[in-house]
Amino acid sequence: MGAPRVSIQTADFDLSAEVAGLHRGDGGVGAVVSFVGTVRDVSAGQGVLRMELEHYPGMTEASIEAMIDAAQARFDIRAARVIHRVGLLDAGDRIVLVAVSSAHRGACFQACEFLMDYLKTQAPFWKKEYTPEGASWVDARADDDEALRRWGLDSGNAAP
Amino acid sequence: MKVTLRFFASLREALGTGGMLDVPEGATVADVRRLLQARDAAHAQALAGGRALRCALNQVLCPDSTVVSDGAELAFFPPVTGG
Q1: ipTM over 0.85
Q2: Is the residue at B15 inside a domain?
Q3: I need a surface site. Which of A63, A120, B39, B80 has the fewest CB within 10 A?
Q4: E strands within A44-159?
Q5: Which among A62, A127, A139 is the nearest to B82, CB-wise?
Q6: Residue A160 within any structural domain of the chain
């Protein structure tokens, strides 16, 4: 095994370097799809100054590793890379990267979306938003459960 | 038998990070939640039956009908909101 598939870190990441990492040493890669999630400066009509991300060390990494295994079993992909930041983040900061490589574009488009839908509803992260009014924990969204259902999977998150 | 409790996010703020708990043989996750509710007002509120909570046994998400084993790590937390 070469580069890690999953990193949970406070530091920012370099998208170009991560995409290059998926190409490196694999001449069969014909496509890479990447998703980058960022901290919005507004939520439910309120300005968001910063965000705090908490996670469950150990379980987080293991659950995302299992999601990548599930993506590899389901789609014809070559490799995947997931980075999720934790701790204090400012509006505009990158939060999450999911990048997937495959021979042709279809598999990595699908696998990238599958991994994000899975991560949003099954990986143990919690967001707390800081607005001028104070801090509050973000509520889970039923839309995200619905997104996972497209893949034939029950979320049990926002609406158990 | 003993389990190690873990709380996260809003539950951690209300109840602390967790600790050891004595539970009867054959107890399910739902049984442990009820046991904890009876502890004090803070536990009763944070773990109230009407609140949507998720649980993980030995760091794997599980339904609350799951039977807890001796020495297990049992975590309670709100619905997840990463990504």
Answers
A1: yes
A2: yes
A3: B39
A4: 46-47, 50-55, 77-85, 87-90, 94-102, 125-131, 134-137
A5: A127
A6: no
Specify the pTM: 0.96
- Which residue type sits at A87? G
Q: What value does the mean pLDDT of chain B take?
A: 97
Query: Is A111 in contact with A118 (CB distance < 8 Å)?
Result: no
Cβ contact B10–A56 (<8 Å): no
When CB atoms are compared, the residue of B54, B59, B82 closest to A120 is B82
Q: Hey, what amino acid is at B2?
A: K
Tens-place pLDDT, residues A2-34: 689 999 999 999 999 999 999 999 999 999 999
Domain of A117, in residue numbers: 6-149
Over range A67-84, report the average pLDDT: 98
At A160, the pLDDT band (50, 70, 90 cuts) reads low
CA distances from A83 to A7, A8, A36 (A): 5, 6, 10
Please report residues of B whose CB lies closer than 8 A to that of A62. 59-60
Q: Which of A23, A30, A6 is nearest to A102 (CA)?
A: A30
Tokens 């490799």 sit on residue: A79
* CATH number of domain containing A17: 3.90.1170.40
Phi (first) and psi of residue B57, to 5 degrees: -105, 125
Inter-chain touch B81–A58, beta carbons under 8 Å? no
Restricting to A residues 63-92, those with a Cβ less than 8 Å away from any Cβ of B are 63, 84
pLDDT of residue A124: 98
* pLDDT value at residue A46: 87
Q: Does A126 touch chain B (CB under 8 A)?
A: yes
